[in-house]
Structures are given as structure tokens and as C-alpha cells.
């Protein structure tokens, strides 16, 4: 009789152990499945250069394990399209929210570059006027105005501004790197005193202007 009781208890304990083990494995499988889940994020389909406006063709959706997703990863393409890339991005790189800025943020970025007491003013240029498009953000230039005297029909060129800092060429606000693709520009944004800005605008409207590129090597002694 006693042996039967022991046998029954052993069977019950075995049954309980089996149930507990089954429940444990079930929870383990659920956790494992959760860890293996993936989420959709937005990545670069091609190389994207800094200060480039993002278009749908530049983007792709990517599946990434949920456990590895960066908190700032862009999940929807609408959050990236028409924004400006802050940095260079490689193909298949996941876009992060701080990699992008909108048009308003870009405008604020430009305004932060302007020193106290100065203004940003943009002038139209062609290849000749812009030293064959060789001027870069951060360079310093002189501005020469060319007018035709109506009475004598004589062409007169005068230096109207000196040592103006270049803030941007076209929409690019940083100096080109060795691998930056060439893009022709037709505008240059300069930093000038308010009164010099007015002189520059008048000259640009009345005649033509040319930018004279200053040397960076002798910048310290050349800033006069």
C-alpha cells in the first residue's frame, strides 16, 4: 500500500514538473520570437552628399531586428523627403532624424553663420564673374562693379567692396571635399556690413559685378 502511494506521488510530481517545464519553454519561445521580430526603417538607396535635398528616389525601406533599431531611426519616408542632408550618407545607411534638417532649420543654419553687425546678401554670377566657379564657402572676395557711362559710352570698373566672406555658393554652405561632385552654381551669398550690402545690390542691379578671389595662404596679411 505504501509503495503504491509513493508511486502515485512520483507520478504526480513528474506531471507537475512536465507542466512547469512546458510553461517555461512556452514563455522562452515567446521571448525568443519577440527578440527575432523586425521593424521597417528608411535607409539610403544611394550615396547622399551633405546639403542635398532628399527625394523619394534616394530612399529605400529596410528590415532591421527590433532589438538593434536606433531610437532616432526614421520609420517613414515622408519624414525624410524634401529635407536636407546634414552629412554624407552611404548606400544602405539607416537615416537618423538628426541626419536631416528641414528648410526652416536650413535657413536658421545660414543665419547662425552671419556675424553680429553683418548681413547675408546674394548676388547672381556666371562662370566668368565667379572665377570659373572656383569660389568656395569660407573664401574671401573683393567685388568689382562695371558700369557704362551713358554720356561718354565709356566702361568704368570700380572696386566697391573688399574682403567679403563667402557664406554659400548656390545652396551649398560648406567647402567641397575631394569626392564632392561638381555642380555649377549661379549665385554667391556674401557676408557684408548693411551699408556695403546696399552698395552691392545697387551695383548688381545697375551693371555687372565680378568677384576677385583672395588668397587663403596670405589671408592674415591680405585682409585690408
- As for the number of domains, it is 2
Strand line-up in the sheet with most strands: 5-8-7-6-9
Count of individual beta strands: 9
**Strand percent estimate:** 25-35%
- The arrangement of helices and strands along the chain is HEEEEHEEEEHEH
Radius of gyration computed on alpha carbons: 32 Å
N→C terminal distance? 114 Å
Structural class: alpha+beta
| Form type | rod-shaped
Biggest sheet layout: 5 strands, antiparallel
> Which range best describes the helical content: under 10%, 10-25%, 25-40%, 40-55%, 55-70% or over 70%?
25-40%
Give the number of helices: 4
| Spans of at least 5 consecutive residues with low confidence | none
Determine the mean pLDDT.
84
What does this molecule look like?
This protein has 224 residues and is α+β, with helices and mostly antiparallel strands. It folds into two domains: 38-101, Antifreeze-like/N-acetylneuraminic acid synthase C-terminal domain (Type Iii Antifreeze Protein Isoform Hplc 12, Alpha-Beta Complex); 110-222, no CATH class. Helices cover 28% and strands 27% of the residues. The protein contains four helices and nine strands. The protein has helices spanning 2-35, 103-113, 194-206, 219-222; strands at residues 38-44, 59-65, 84-85, 100-101, 119-124, 140-148, 155-169, 187-192, 208-213. The strands form three sheets. Strands 5-8-7-6-9 form a five-stranded antiparallel β-sheet. The longest helix has 34 residues, at 2-35. The N and C termini lie far apart (114 Å). The model has no long low-confidence stretch (mean pLDDT 84).
